[in-house]
Amino acid sequence: MSRPISKKTMFAGLAAAGVLAVGIAAPTVAFAEDGSGSSSTSQTDRKQARADRDAAFAKALAAELGISEDKVAAAVEKVREQQKPQGQPKGAPKTQADRQAELKSRLDAAVKEGKLTQEQADAILKAYEAGVLGGFAGKGAPGPK
Asked: How many whole angstroms separate alpha carbon 77 and alpha carbon 83?
């Protein structure tokens, strides 16, 4: 015979699931954005590879449209500049405060959408501040020991 789940047990399970989900997903996002572990040589190689791809793209697009490569390259660069996020320059490292503000914003949105309760969001933020979330903490921030 099964027993109904109490609200307290269900809340504890949901809170644990929320913390676990953030704990699993957040390090992946942090490492992807961080770019740590890559040497300056590989960054130079990536920049060169991107420049080569951009040049090939501009050449193919210019041929398709029947206009000069220079005109296409200038248009692509102009649009790329317009699409850049405002604020921090590209490649600027995020501080722990920046990451914490982003996390708080995402948690606030989740609460507003009904995906989390305020208590769950507060617990996740507290875990972040305590360094419990592992790789999600910013550089120099407390992390797993």
From this structure: 10
Do 14 and 6 form a contact (C-beta atoms < 8 A)?
no
> Alpha carbon of 44 to those of 49, 51, 145: distances in Å?
9, 10, 33
Distance CA 129, CA 89 (A): 26
* Predicted confidence (pLDDT) per residue in 106-124, tens digit: 999 999 999 989 998 898 8
The Cα–Cα gap between 10 and 17 comes to 10
- To 10 degrees, the CA torsion angle through 62, 63, 68, 72? 0
**Model pTM?**
0.34
Q: Which helix (H) or strand (E) holds 110?
A: helix 96-112
In the structure encoding, which two tokens stand for residue 66, read together?
């029947």
